[in-house]
Design goal:
By secondary structure, the chain is of the alpha/beta class. It has a single domain, classed as UDP-N-acetylmuramoyl-L-alanine:D-glutamate ligase. The protein is about 35% helix and about 20% strand. Strands 1-10-9-8-7-6-5-2-3-4 form a ten-stranded mixed β-sheet. β2, α1 and β3 form a beta-alpha-beta unit. The chain is globular. The termini are far apart.
């Protein structure tokens, strides 16, 4: 029997700096032995998304963050702020993963073992194959996949090959998946126009992957609330919060997946992690940062900041 519930996040009350149980119920490790989390992701030069967003999220939630870079993405101001994509060589990625697991993996002798990883932008079939082998060898307990299916700086045929490789090689290894509206449609093969569609898509993606799913409707669905759907095969919960504007904010998806990763690393259940991540990102969007670029960026520090004016 599947439980269906509704979750509306309250104002967060983070207490990550002291290394104690937070007032909102999430857990933190002690200051001397923080939980560890790895992000395998690309660098985004403006600092709003990608590995930069992941590390800031880990820090805000009291987790020691590690990054292994897969690519460098920089916007092109002279070309309508399009993406410029430069992959990191597969051997360099393998070297990073080797160093990380040797330092913090199960056989490292480290006092706190790295067992939680977030996967973001991979960008090429070669990178995907490299990461897949590392995941198989490292035996991570928590594998959070933010399934970046489109990189606008790639040639369309190459992008399609990358999407296929990600779905076939990485998705089956994931324990938690956080697709946005477009990615949820692509993975489920369904059109998503409302919350009921989003629920059905979350169920379908879980059926395909076996992973817990947090399918993001965000601002893409009509209505006053930004709605996401959690489903883990047993519990289906709708997570909603009032929309903060009608335009997507840079780094929101990366930060949501990173917040899930941080909470799982600290011992939260999948549903607890989803709830905390929703609250965290809602506040980050509320306190977003503007620049000369034609988009705003989520501020991870906004969770503890006064409301933006």
């Amino acid at each position: 029997m599947q439980a269906v519930t509704q979750f509306t996040p309250a104002a967060p009350d983070w207490d990550t700096a002291q290394g104690v149980e937070c007032k909102n119920g999430s857990m933190t490790s002690s200051p001397s032995t923080p939980a560890l989390a790895l992000t395998i992701a690309g660098s985004e030069a403006t600092g709003g998304a990608g590995a930069q967003a992941d590390l800031k999220t880990f820090q805000e939630l009291g987790v020691f963050g590690i990054v292994n870079l897969t690519c460098i993405v920089s916007f092109d101001p002279a070309n309508d702020w399009g993406h410029r994509f430069v992959p990191v060589e597969p051997q360099v990625i393998a070297d990073q993963l080797e160093a990380t697991t040797a330092a913090y993996g199960a056989a490292s002798g480290a006092p706190q073992v790295l067992d939680t990883v977030k996967i973001g932008m991979l960008g090429s079939p070669a990178t995907i194959a490299t990461v897949r082998e590392a995941l198989k060898d490292a035996d991570f307990k928590n594998v959070v996949l933010d399934p970046v299916l489109i990189c606008k700086g790639q040639e369309p045929g190459h992008a399609l090959d990358t999407d296929t490789a990600l779905t076939e090689q990485i998705l089956p290894l994931a324990t938690f998946v956080t697709p946005n509206h477009f990615e949820a449609e692509s993975l489920s093969g369904m059109a998503i126009g409302n919350v009921e569609d989003l629920k059905a898509a979350a169920r379908k993606i879980h059926e395909l992957s076996g992973a817990a799913v947090l399918a993001k409707g965000g601002v893409r669905l009509e209505g006053a609330d930004a709605v996401d759907v959690f489903f883990d095969g047993e519990t289906l919960e709708v997570l909603s919060a009032p929309k903060v504007g009608e335009v997507a904010v840079s780094g929101a998806g990366c930060s949501l997946a990173a917040a899930v990763t941080a909470e799982l690393a600290k011992g939260a259940t999948a549903l607890e992690a989803a709830r905390t991540a929703k609250s965290f990102v809602t506040e980050g969007i509320r306190n977003r940062v503007a620049s000369g670029a034609p988009f705003t960026a989520l501020w991870q520090g906004g969770a503890g900041a006064p409301p933006a004016r």
